[in-house]
Amino acid sequence: MAKINNFEDILAWQKARELNKEIYKISNNELFNRDFGLKDQIRRASVSVSSNIAEGFERNGSKEFKQFLYIAKGSAGEVRAQLYIALDLGYIKNEEFELINSLVTETSKMISGLINYLINSELKGAKFSK
């Protein structure tokens, strides 16, 4: 794996950024926009995915990074669950659901890959070096 110098270099963060954009776009439609609770919650969960990837990376330790990646992965699951609610309530079309569900699933898989890499890596980060 190539050395990552900034969280912006992390492919999972880049994918999560795309997810944020799509979530904000769909939650601005007229029906979704009226449901303040769901709109706020799905936006917060989406932002949590990218934010936790970034925050974990900035901690400079693989143990903490993994912890934040697990939180990001959990938030991705939360987004997926809320997408189903939005679909069931007719706030989004099936095509929108499929697109975003695919995006969040891909993001989650990328986060899992990064977690597995860190689990199997001997890299511990600046805080854990001798």
Give the tags.
single chain; 130 residues; mainly alpha; de novo design (two linked rop proteins); 5 helices; 75% helix; 0% strand
How would you describe what is shown here?
With 130 residues, the protein is mainly alpha-helical. The protein has one domain (11-120): de novo design (two linked rop proteins) (Up-down Bundle). It contains 5 helices and no strands. The chain has helices spanning 11-26, 30-34, 36-58, 62-88, 94-120. α1 (11-26) packs antiparallel against α5 (94-120), α3 runs antiparallel to α4 and α4 (62-88) runs antiparallel to α5. It is elongated, with a radius of gyration of 16 Å. The model has no long low-confidence stretch (mean pLDDT 93).
What's the short story on this structure?
This protein is mainly alpha-helical and 130 residues long.
